[in-house]
Structures
1.
Amino acid sequence: MLLVAIIGLVMTVAAVAVAARRVVWLYKLATVGQPAPERVEYAKANVGAEIKAQLVEVFGQRKLLKWTPSGTAHFFVMWAFFILLTVYIEAYGVLIQGGITGTPDFHIPLIGTWPVLGFLQDFIAVAALLGLIAFAVIRVRNSPKKLGRSSRFSGSHLGGAWLVLFMIFNVIWTMFLFRGAAINTGNFPYAGGAFASEAAAAVLHPLGEGVNEVLEPVGLLLHIGVMLVFSVIVVNSKHLHIFTAPLNVLFSRRPDGLGAAQPMRSGGKVLDFEEADPDTDVFGRGKIEDTTWKGFLDFYTCTECGRCQSQCPAWNTDKPLSPKMLILDQRDHAFKVAPYLMASEEQRKDLHQDVLALLDKPLVGEDGVIHPDVLWSCTNCGACVEQCPVDIEHIDHILDMRRYQVMIESSFPSEAGVMLKNLENKGNPWGMSEMKRAEWIEELDFEVEIVDDKMPADTEYLFWVGCAGALEDRAKKTTKAVAELLHIAGVKFAVLGPMEACTGDPARRLGMEFLFNMLAQQNIETLNEAGVKKIVATCPHCFNTLANEYPQLGGTYEVIHHTQLLARLVDEGRLTPITPVEEKITYHDPCFLGRHNKVYAQPRDIMAKVPGVRTQEMHRCKDRGFCCGAGGARMWMEERIGKRINTERVDEALTTDPDRVSTACPFCLVMLGDAIAEKKNSGEAKESLEVVDVAQLLIRSVKGEPEAEPTAAS
C-alpha cells in the first residue's frame, strides 16, 4: 500500500500543479480587462440575495429545470459532483491511511459508516450514469449534422462535450470497481445501503479474494487518476463552468441581467460626458481588453448549451447573430491574443507573428472577430439572458460593442442615423414638431390636464404618453383608450404635452449613450421641476427607462405600466367590463414588459375579466415569448437579412386562428400590425384580423361600444 500511496500522491501533486497553472493564467487574463467594482460592492451589500441566488440558480438549477429531460439529467450529474466528493475523501483517506498503516479501512469520522451516506453515494452515481445516457441521446438527436442551424448545439465545440461525458463515465465505473473490490476484501465502511457497490461486489466476487485484493488498489488509483485527469481537462475546456458558474451567478446583476442597461464605465467609474476624453477613457468595447473581468467570467462560464441560441429571434429568422457564438468568438479571440495581453513590453517584442497579426484584427468589422451584421441584428429582447443557466449577460456585451461603434467609429446602419438626428433636434424619432404631442387630446370628449409648470395638487399620476403614443396613429388609439379608462375610473392624471421628449431608449439601445444622457437629463429636470412622483406609461420601453434607468441619473419615480394600473382598477371595481367581446384572442408579450420587467399576469388578468373573451396562448409565450423585432432600436433599422421577425411572430399567432391579436406595447402594435397587413394582402389572414392593445379591449367592454369595422386604410 505504501507504493500505491506514493503513486497516488505524486499523481495528485502533478495534476494540481498543471491545473493551478491554468487557473492562474485564466485569472491573469481576466484581470487584464476593465475593473467592475460595482459587482463586488453589490454582492457585499446584498449577501442575502446572493445566497438565495446560489441556492436557487446553482444548487436548485432553476433555469435548467425549465428544460426537461436535459435539465433533470444535468441536475443529477451536477449533484453527483457534490455528493461524490465524499467518495474522494474516502479514497484519499484509504490512500494515506493504507500507506501509513498498511490497512486501507478508512471511513469519514462521525458519518463514515452511516448506511444512508453509502446509499446516497450509490444512488447519485447511478442517477448520473442515467443522466449521461440522456445527454448522449439528446446530443445524437440534436446533432448539427442532422439539424443544421436548427440544432442548439450548432457552433459548439462538440468533441470536448463527448470527452467530458466519457470522463464522467470513467469516474463512475472506477468508483464501483474500487468499492466493489473493497466490499469483497472487507475494507468497505458501510454495512448496508450501498446497493450498486454491493452489486459490483457480487460481479467481482467469483474472481476470488486474491484478485479482489489487487483490484482494490488498482481501482483506487484509477478512480483518483481519472478525477485528476478530468480536473486538468475541465480547466482547459468549456466545462470550466463547473467552477466558474457559481462565481458568475454571484457577480451577475440583480434581480437579473435584464431591465436597465448599464451606464458606460471607464476604469470602473461611470463616465461623465462633460469631462470624458476618448483618447484616455474607454468608450464601450473597441478591443477585447476593454471587456470587464465580469465579461471575461462570462467567456469562461459559457457551457455552449445553446439555450440562448435556440430562443434568439434573430437566429430563428436566419440572421447571423447567435448569442452563444457572440460569447465564444470573443472567448476564442481572447485566448489567442492572451500572450500579448499578459506580456510585458519586453516580452511582447519576442512574441510570435501569429499573435501580433491577430492584434490588428478589429473586434467588430467585416473581417473582425464579430461581424457588424451580428451586432446590429440584436433586438435586446433578453431571451438569451433569460434562458442562460449560468447568468451570462449577452446584452451587456452587445451594448458595449455598439457604443464603441457608434460613438467612436461612427459606424452603424444609415437609417438609424436619421433617427438619432431627429432625437437630437426634435426630441422624437420621427422628427415631428413637439406641438403635435398633444393633438390626440382634441379627439377626446373630456379635458386632459397639460402640465404647464407644476403638477396640479389633486393629480395622482403623470401620464407619460411616449413618442409613439402621441405621434403614431395606431398607437394613439391605445393612448386615447387609456386616458378614457382613467377618466371613467376617476383617476386624476395630467400629461406633459409639448414638454415631453423621448426617454432616450432608442439612442441608448443603439449605443449612443451621450444622446441618451442628454435626453434623460432634460426629462428628469422637467419631471423634478413639475414635482412628479408617480408615472403611468403605455410604452414598455418608456416604462423600463423611466423606472430602471433614470435612477442612474438621479431621476427616481414610482413608475407603473398601464396594464398594471388598469388591472388594479378592475380589481377594485372602479372599472367594470360589462359588454361581452365574443372573440378568440391571442396575447403577445412585449419583451420590455415581460422578460425585462416580469409583467406577465396583469394583461392576461384584464382579458380574463372581459366577458366573452376566449384566450389562446401562442406556443412561445411569457418568459419564452418571441420578439416583435422592434427592440434594440431595430424599429428604425431595415431588416434585410433572413425572414422578418414580426412576420415569424404573426405566423405563430395565426396558428391559434385568432379574431384579434392583443399586446401592451405601441412598438409591438405597429410591428405586428404591419405583418398582419402583409398576410392579408397575400390572403394568409382573414380581413377582420386586427392587432389591438389590451386597453382597447377593456374600453370596448367598459363603454359597451362595438368595434369599428376595419377599413382598407387601417
2.
Amino acid sequence: MQRLHDAEAAAREIVARTGGEIRLALPLGLGKPVRLVNALVKLACDDPSIRLAIFTALTLEPPDPGSGMKARFLGPAKDRLFGAYPALLYAELLRRDALPDNITVNEFFLLAGRWLGVAPMQQAYISANYTHARDVLIAQEPNVLAQLVSEQDGSFSLSGNTDISADLFAMRAEGKLDFVAVGEVHPDLPFMQGPGAVLTPEAFHLTLVPEPYELFSAVKRPVDAAAHAIGLHVSRLIADGGTLQIGIGAIGDAVAHALLLRHSGAAPPIQRAAPFDLPAPGGPFEEGLHGVTEMLVGGLLALFEAGVVRREVDGHAIAAGFFVDTRDFYRRLREMPREERARIAMTPVSFTNALYGNEAEKRTARVKARFVNGAMQVSVMGDVMSDTVENGQVVSGVGGQFNFVEQAFALHDARSIITLPATRWSGGKRHSNIRWSVATTTVPRHMRDVVVTEYGIADLRGRSDAETIAALIAIADSAFQDELIDRAQKAGKLPKGFTLPQSARNNWPETVENWLAPYRAELPDFPFGSDFDEIERLLLPALEELSRHTPTLRGKARLLRDALRLPPHPREQEALARMGFDSRYAGGEALALSGALRRVVT
C-alpha cells in the first residue's frame, strides 16, 4: 500500500494506474474523499485527454445563502452550522454548467431540493432503488473506488459508508470485480465495525492522509407542533420487541423523541388528550427494539443510548448502511466505548434494505417490523409521492423508501408507515398534501399501508378504494375535505350519501396547537440539540412566518400591520441585530421581520 499526504500526487498516481480512463465509484454522502476528488477533477479539467466518469449520490453542500433574509441569517453562521466543509469542485462546475466534456457525473439520490432547476444534474440523474444502485454502478465497470475512511490500530473502517462499498470490496475479494482502492483518512470519522466494515491495509492500493477539514454537519431543523403530533401518533404503532427503521428530518426526530417519551411514561398523558380518534397509547419497552435502517440517524442513536433500541441480533442492536449527521453525532460515536459502539453494525444496504440473501435469518430477526418514512404528498387512493415534482424535476430520489415498503409486505406482522404533514405553504397559501391525485408516484397505491398526518392514522392495508379514500380524507386538513369528498363522489369512488364522521371535522392547525400547548416542556423544538444559538432558534419560526406570508401583497400587509399593532417580542432588538438591522424601522424587511416575530410570540 502506498501512503501519500498530497492529494494532487495521489490523483496523478490514479491517472497513471488507469491510463487516464477513470470510472470512479464514490460513496453516498459523508464518505466522499473531498481532497482527492477535487484533485482528480482539477487534473481532468486541465488535461482533456483524461476521461473521468463519477458515479455517486447525495453530494453534500451547505446551502447557498443567496440574498435577502436568507443571506442575513445563514451568511454569518454558515461554517459554524454546517462545518467548514470544502466545496466539491464537480458540484460547483455542474451548477455553472461548466463541467468539461471529459468529465461526467451521475447520481442516484440528490441532496433534497438542492438541485432543482440545475439542468446538468437533472439530466444526469439515474433513478434507482438503493439496493439496485450497486448493480447500476457495476454495469459501468468501475476501475477506481475512493472513500473517506477511519484508521485505528493498523486497520481501516469504512465508517459511515458501508452501504455499497462493503459489497464491492467483498466482490473484489471473490474475483468478481477489479478496481484500484483509495482511502482518504479523516481523523474525526468514527471507527465503526460490522460485516465488511473493517479492512486491512492490503485492501487499499493507496491511502491519502491530507490536511484535515471539518466534516459536513447536517443541521437539525426545528420540530413543529405538526411533526410532534405525527411522532406521538406513530409511537402508538411501534410494537415492543419489534424492529424499527426511521428516516431523517424533523418528523424522524419527532418519532424518536415520542418513543423516548413513551418509554419514560411521559407520552400517554399527552396522547390521551389528543382530540382525534386514535389507537391506545403504548407502554414502556420491556423487550426493547432492534434497529434495521439504511441510515443511522440521530434519533435512532438517541434511542440506542437510552436503551430503547437494545434487542440484539448476532450481537448487534442496530444494523445500518450509512450516516450523515451533526458534529455532535460523530463525536458521540467516536467517544462511545468500543464494545458499546460494536453493537452498532455498519452493513451494506443489500442487508438492511432487502430480504433476499440470508432470507430465513432476516425474517427471524425482523419481527414486528415498523418502517417509518416521509413523503411529500399522498393521493386519496394511496399513491405516495416522495421524490419528484410535477414537471419531472427530481427533489431527492427514491432511495430506500420502496425497499422498506416492499419488506413491510413481505414480512409477517410488519407495517410500512408513511408520514407527512397534512398541508404545506406555497405562494403565500396553504395547500393540502392529501390530494385527489399526485403528479408522480414513488410507491404505488397497491402497496398502500399506513399513512399518518398530524390529524391521525389511516390504516389502508387490504381496504377497498372507498374505505381508503374515506380514511385519508379523515386525516386531511378540514379546509380541503369537502373538495376531496366532492371529487371522489363525482368520480363514483365514494357513495353519494357519504358523510365524514364529525370526529374528523376538526382537523385544523389550531386544534393541534391547542392540544400540545400545555405540553411544550416535553415537546421541545430541538429534542436532540441544535447548532443554532438561542437567538437563531428564536428567529427560525419568525423566518418561517416570513416565507409563508411575503409572497403575497395581503401577506406582506398583514406582517406590517402586526409590526405596528402587536406588542413587541421580548428579544426583538437582539433578533433584529442578529439579522443586521439597527431597528425595526431600518426598512420594509426589518418591519416585516418585526411583525413575524410578534406573530410567533403571540
3.
Amino acid sequence: MTTELVHGQNHPLPGTSLEVRVSAGTPVVAAVSLGDGQGRVSGPGAVAHLAAPRLPGIEVPARLAAEQRVTADLAAVPADVDRVHVLLALPPVAGSPSRFGACPAPHLTVSGSDGVPVASFTVTGLSSEAAIVALELYRRQGAWKVRALGQGYAGGLAELLSDQGLGRPEADAVAARVAEAVRPAPAVPSTAPPPVAAPLPPPVPPAASPPAAPAADTVPPTPAPVAGDASGWSMEERLHNQVWGMFEDLARTIAAYRSAVDFAESRLDQELDTILADPRTRVGPAAEAARDQARARQTELVDRARAVLDRDLAQLTAEAEVVEPALPPPYAGWESPVWHGYRVPAEPPMAVRLGDLHLPERPELRIPLLVRLPLERGLWVDGAQDRLRAVDVAVALAARLLASHPAGECAVHVIDPAGSAATALAPFTDSGALREPPATGAAGVAALLARLTERVDLVQMALRADVPFEVPPGVDPARQVLVVNDFPYGFDDRTINQLRYLADEGPQVGVHLILVAAREDAREYGPLLDPLWRSMMRLTPQPDDHLADPWVGHAWTYEPLLAPPGSAVLSQVLRQVAAARRTYDPGRH
C-alpha cells in the first residue's frame, strides 16, 4: 500500500533500485544532487540535470515536461554519497510560471524495482518558490529511506544549489546550463492539463490600447471534451487533474472578462472626462456625438469580451457534463449513481470532494471542490447560519471520509455534549459505522479527547525516534476523524486546549477534526480560540461566497454536499463500511 507522506515524514525503501515519478501540471526541470552526510554537494559534477542527465546510479530526463521520471540505483552511487536529493525547478522560458505557487502542487511517487508504489508526496504550501528540494533519499544504518522535504527557494536553482554547498559561481553556472538547454522550450503536449494557478488576470492594458480579446468567430473550434483528458498515471489522477484544470480555466476566463469590462469602463470615463474638459466640446451636437461614440466603443469592447466568455463557458459546461458522470465515489456527489454501486475501496483516493464552487457569471456551472488526502487542515462547519443543517453537513463529510478509506484504515469519533445531534447521526449509529457511541457529558468528552491527544503524542514520539511503525499496543493505527458538535458548549479550558492541540498537531499524525460551531458563540473566550479558527478551513451549510482563490481573489460561492432529500444513500454506504470493518478486524467487534 502506498504511504502518503507529509512534510518531514520518512519511510523505509524496499531496495536500492527506484523510480521517482513527478506530476507537476506544468513543464518543470527534474534534477538530482548527490550529497554527503550533511547534504553538501561536492561540485557541479554531483548534479544531474537535463543538460547532464547521468551520474553513477542516477538518471534524470533530458527534457522539459510536466511529467518526469527519475531512476536511481542507490547501490551504484559513490560510497561517499549519503543523501540523494530530487529537485524540481521552473524553467526560465517565456510562458512558464515563475513560481510554484502559480502551479498545481507537484506530486511525486516513489516505486520499487517491481513498479509497485512505495510512498508518495504532494508538495503543498508553495508560493514564491522557483525551485524546490522535493524528496531526500538518505542512507541510515546501511539502509536507504525516503523523506518528504518540499523545501523551496525563491531564487531558483542557483540559490538552491548554493544552499547545498556549491559556491555561488558554480551554482550560477549550473543554472545557466539548464537555462540554455531549455531554450527554446518544447511545446506542452495537448494532454497536459493547464496550470492550476497561472498568474491571473493579465495586466490591464493602457487606455490607448483595447484588451486583446479575439472575437468569438476568429477562434478555431475546440475538440469535444473527454473525461480523463489530462495527465496522470491512473484514471483517478487524470480526473483529479482535469477537475483542477477546469477550476483554473474558469478562474482565468472570468478574470479576463472582468479585466476587459473594467478596462472598457475606465476608458469610457477617460474619454468622457476629456470631452468635459474641453469647453469647445462640452455641450452641443458634437459633444453628444462624441459621448455616443465613446459609449459605443465601450459596448463593443464589453460585447467582444462577453462573446469570448460565453464561448469559454460553453466549453467548460460541456466538459463538466462529461466529467461529472465519470467521477469515482470520493469525487462524486451523493446523488451520483456510483454511490449506489459503492464498494469499500482497497486503496484511499488522492482526494475527496467537499462541495461545489461556482462564480456569479455562470452559477449553474459547478466545479467540484477536491481536497487532497490526508487532510492538511481541519474542517470548521459554521453553524451561525443554520446549526441543524451544519450538523448534517459535518455528518456527510465524515461519512465521505470514512467511505473513501479501506476497511480498518479510518475511524470516526463523535463528541455531542448535549446529545442534540442524535437525529443527524442516525446513519452512523444505526449502521454500526461508529466504533463507540458518541461522547456526551463532561466525562465522556474529556475521556475521548484525552485518548486522542495521547495518540497524537505517542505517534509524534515514534516519528521523532525515526520508528514510525513502532507505536505501543492498543494505539489504533487508523486515521481518526473527530466530529465535534455544539462547540464550545460543554467544554472547559482543558478540553478547549486539547481541541486546539488536535487541530494544530493532529493532521500530521492522522487525526483530523470536523468542528460544528458558530464563532460568535465563542466570544466569551476572547482571543483564546482565534488560532483554532485560523487553522481550519471554514465551510458553510448554506451557499456562501466566502472562499477566495489565492491567485486573483475571486469570491467563489461554496455549496455543501448533502444527500438528496429522502435518500438512504448515507445509511447504505455506512452499513457496507461497518460490515467490511467487521470482516477486516472481527476481534474488535
4.
Amino acid sequence: MVQLSLLIVLLAALMTPLVMARFKISVVPTAVAEIIVGIILGKSLLNWVSLTASLNQLSTLGVIILIFLSGMEIDFDLFKPQKNLNGTPPAKWSPLKLAISSYASILLVAGLLGWLLQLTGLFSDILLATILFSTVALGVVIAALTEKELLSKALGQTILLTAALGEIIPLLALTAYAALNGGHSARLWLVLLIFLAAIILLMRFRSIYRFFAKIDKTTTQLDIRLAFFLIFTLVTIAEQVGAENILGAFLAGIVMKLLQPSKVTRDKLTSIGYGFFIPIFFITTGAKLNLRTLLADRDSLILIPIFFICFLLAKAVPVLIFRQRFTMKNAIASGFLTSTTITLVLPTLQVAQNLHVITTQQSGAFVLAAVLTCIFSPIIFNQLYHPEKEDLVKTRVTFIGTNILTIPVAQRLSQGWYDIRMLTDQPKNYRTYNSEANNVTLLPDLTEATLQKADAFTTDILVLGHLDHDVNVRLATTAIKQQVPRVIARFEARDVADDRYDVLAEQGVEIYNSFDINISMLREMIESPSTLKLLTDNDAGLYEVTVHNRRFAGRELQSLPFIENITISRIYRNGHFIAPHGDTFIEQDDHLIFTGDKSAVPEIRRLLGIRN
C-alpha cells in the first residue's frame, strides 16, 4: 500500500499536465490543478492515497525545493535605483518605491483584517492571519508576467517586486512567529546564525563555483550537487537554531542566485523540482484535505468565502498606489494578480498545525480560499491588462561625433525602432547639423566627467564617430569601464605599430573603417549583385536581432509566429555562424540575421528582444 500510494501520486503528477494540455486548460495554474487532483484522490473523495511516512518525507522535500526555487527567482537588480530611457533620474514613482509602498499597505490592511476576524470571533490569531493575508505566490505571479512578457517592463517589475516582498517578509515573520509560539523565544537571536552561514557559504563558494564551471559536469553534475549541499546545510542549521526549515531553503536559493548559475543549471534545478518533488507536495496537500468534514461544519463553511474576500481586500490599497504611475485598468489588474497566494500559505499552515494554534477545519478553509485566488485572480488579470505606452521600448543609440558619416545613419535609424541621441564638442558641427537630426547636444568637452553628467554611457549602443582617433580610443576605453553593452568605434587610419585597436577589439569593441567596408561591399557586389539593392531598399532590408526573450528559447525556427514574414539567413551563436533550417532550435542570446519587410521588423525585434 505504501508503494501504491506513491505510484498513484506519481501517475497523477504525470497525467495532470497532459490532461490540461489535451483540453487546453490554461486559466488554472498547474499547482492549483495538482491540489484539486489531490483532493479527488485523497480523503475528500476516492481515498486512494494514504499519507505514508515516505510520501510525507517526499512532500516535505517538495516544499523545501519549492521555497529554494522561489529564492532563486529574486532579482536583486530590481532593488537598485534605475534610470529612464533618456538617462534622467527615475520618475517620482519608480517600481521600487511603488512596490515598497504597496507592500507596506498590504501589511497594514492584513493586520486590520486579522483584528476584525478576532473581533468577530471567526479567527483568534491576529499575527497568523496577518502573515497569511500578506503572502503573494511569487511563482504564479512570475508565470503570469512571463506569459504577458512583462518582466522587463515597469509594470511587471513593480508587480514582481511586490510579490518578492510578499514572500520575504511573511517568511521572516513566520520564523519569528514559530519561535515565539514554539517556546524558543529566548533563542530567537540564533536565527541570525542562518544568515551568517548563508553569507559565509556565498563568499566561500564564489571561487569554487567558477572552478565548477570549467569541469565537465556530464556525469558529476557538480552544480546540482552544490545546490543540494547548500539546501541541506542551511535547512539543518535552521532546524538546529529553532527556525523553520523553509527559511534555510529560501536563503539557499538566494545564495545560489548570487552565485550566478548558468541557464542550464537553473533549468536542471527547475526540472528536478517541478518534475518530481514539487508535484508530490501539491498533490499530497490536496489529499490531506477532508472536504466532507469541512463542508459538513457550518462554521468552517462560512470561513472559506470570508478568507477568500480577505485575501482580495488585503491587496486592494495597492491599486490606488499603482494608479500613481499606471492606468486604472492595469492598476486593478495588478491588484488582482498580487492577491494570488498559495506557495507560502501551505507551509505556513503546516507550521501552524504543528504548533497546534489552528484547527484542521480552519487550515482547510485557508487552503481552499488560497486555491480560489489562484483560479480567479490570474484570469481577471489577463482580462484587464492592456499594454502601456512605456512598454514599447526602443533601443537606445548614442552617437559621439556629428559629421557627414554619423548624421545620415542617425536620420535613418530614428525612423525605426531606435531612440537616438547625438553628442558633439564641435560648435561648428552643432550649428551645421542641429537642424538635420533630433536630440543633438553640444558639450563643452568630451571628458569622462562631462559625458557622465550628460548620461552618455546610459545607452544600449554607443557609436564613437569622432574624427579624432585618439579621442575614440579614449572614449572606447571609458565605455568599457562603464559597462556599455555595445561599443562601435570608427578608426580610419591605422598605424601597424599601434596595437590599441587590437586590444579594444579583444575587449569587445566593434571597430569599423571606410576602407574595409568599401572592400567588403565591392566584393559582395561582384559575388552577390543583389546585396546592395537589399541593403538600400526602402521596403525590405537585412536585419539582426538578439534573442533575449526566454519564451522563444528552445523553440524550432518553423514554430515562430512571424516566420512567414521573414527569411532567416544565418544564426550567429557563440562566435560561429550556423546555417538555419526549419527544425533548428533557437537558444537564448542567439543573433538572428534575417531579411523581411521593414514594417514588420519593429514588432519582431520587440518580441525577440524582450528581457524576461
